[in-house]
Amino acid sequence: IKAADINSSGHLQIGGVDALTLADKYGTPVLVYDVAKIRDQIHRFRNVFEQEHVEYEVSYASKAFASVAIYQVMKQEQAHIDVVSGGELATAIKADFPMEKISFHGNNKSEAELSMALEHGVGTIVVDNFHEIDLLKQLIADSSKRVNVQLRITPGIAAHTNSYIATGQVDSKFGFDVDSGQADKALRELMAISQINVTGIHAHIGSQIFDVQGFKGVAHKLVQIAADWQEKYDFHTKILNVGGGFGIKYSADDHPIHPEDFVRAIIDVVKKSAQESGIDMPAIWIEPGRSIVGPAGYTLYTIGSRKDIPGLLPYVSVDGGMGDNIRPALYNAKYEAVLARDPQAQNIEEVRIAGKYCESGDILSDRQPLPETHPGDVLVMLDTGAYDYAMASNYNRNPRPAVVFVENGRDQLVIKRESYDDLTHLDLNYSL
Ligand code: LLP
Q: What CA–CA distance (Å, rounded) separates 160 from 35?
């Protein structure tokens, strides 16, 4: 928390709006995004490429947080987006997002999803496997459609992160294996289809990565593959897509470099390796999700009950939990929290922050220093913008929270809080 995040009443402010005012106006739990932070991170990525005079695209990996409003922000920013399902695509369509700036990812896109993408003129299909090539071939056979594809390879690079979110190692469900010749075979199959234009090669090594080595490795590997394919098949790649995964700082224990420094390192390697191997400098695409929206998100909760156990850390419970943030329970993810009324108050004790869900594992933080708290206090969890709302559930039939965007001292509801009617509106009576 910086001094600029505290207003004249000493309260936390988000995008210039008092967090207590937001909690009051929208109720809790509520996820609040500081939109200026989102725009700023996109600009930072862009600046690196501009300074290095490299052709590029910043493609927001919208699985981190997909909604009509965020796609509208991306449209304003003229960014690209990645979608990974018909549902994300439908949301982008609803947001009137330009279809040519969308890349469609996934290791098992259905025929319906692929034909939806073709019908709407999605800019790039990131082809993942042979079944998908067959489906695409059938779907475009009786149309005059042309389609751009990037070919996703498994780079064989193990990223040091949680195994649930590491994707680069050879033993992965994503992409074509290189060493066994699968990727070559895929390229030749795709090149043989006249309506398909292979624009690039794609790899993604994982998420929440702190180590720049993995990105340098993947950049080098992609250039090598490009050079090999140019020599063998006279295939000239226009784009190398290095994926996303740039780690962010959630807690004092995290020490990532700035997201844009990963990009600088990638550009360096691609430039050098391209020169060495004699291929034209390709455009570089990145697909950050977490680093764009993570630090911009703040979840506001209201504190309720408390349980003290002699000799152990107290449990302080809030009105949300694993339904709006599964990450601590699923990945043992750490977050930090402050009190909205006094984010810089002196801490007097360490507590565990418990959710309200009927599960012992529903602990949002297993050790959080806090000042004295009272029921009704608003607790703010920081950096909750990525993979929180996106992975929210209705476990215990709790409604999902509202989402609010703030910018320049103004706030706007962008996803309504679910009501009990919303929770039951798909339910039907049983009468057999
Ligand atoms: N590109 C591809 C192909 C991806 O699979 C992903 C993330 C990204 C880009 C964006 O990665 P990011 O920049 O956001 O790290 N639910 C997990 C994260 C799963 C990431 C899946 N793929 C979590 O909460 O940590």
A: 30
Rounded to the nearest whole angstrom, what is the distance from the C-alpha of residue 411 to the centroid of ligand 1?
28
CA distance 357 to 360: 8
Q: Which atom of ligand 1 is nearest to the CA of 287?
A: 9
Q: For a ligand 1 pocket test, name from 59, 150, 173, 207 the mutation site with the most ligand atoms within 8 angstroms of its C-beta.
A: 207
pLDDT per residue as tens digits for the range 119-139: 999 999 999 999 999 999 999
In this predicted complex, what is the ipTM? 0.99
* Integer Cα distance of 56 and 229 in angstroms: 21
Give the CATH number of domain 54-292: 3.20.20.10
Ligand 1 centroid from CA 260, angstroms: 17
| Rounded Cα–Cα distance for residues 18 and 334 (Å) | 25
pTM for the full model? 0.97
Task: Write the pLDDT tens digit of every residue in 208-241.
Answer: 999 899 999 999 999 999 999 999 999 999 999 9
Contact 289, 312 (CB under 8 A): no
Distance (Å) from CA 287 to ligand 1 centroid: 9
State the pLDDT confidence band at 273, using cuts at 50, 70 and 90.
very high
Mutation test residue for ligand 1: of 287, 291, 322, 330, the one with most atoms within 8 Å of CB:
287
Task: Say whether 390 is catalytic.
Answer: no
Domains in the chain: boundaries: 3-33+296-424, 54-292
CA angle at 300 for the pair 245 and 251, rounded to the nearest 5°: 40
What are 187-207's pLDDT values in tens digits? 999 999 999 999 999 999 999
Give CA–CA dist 76/420, Å, rounded. Answer: 34
Q: Within 13 Å, how many C-alpha atoms sit on residue 62's CB side?
A: 30
- Domain 3-33+296-424 adopts which CATH fold? Lyase, Ornithine Decarboxylase; Chain A, domain 1 (2.40.37)
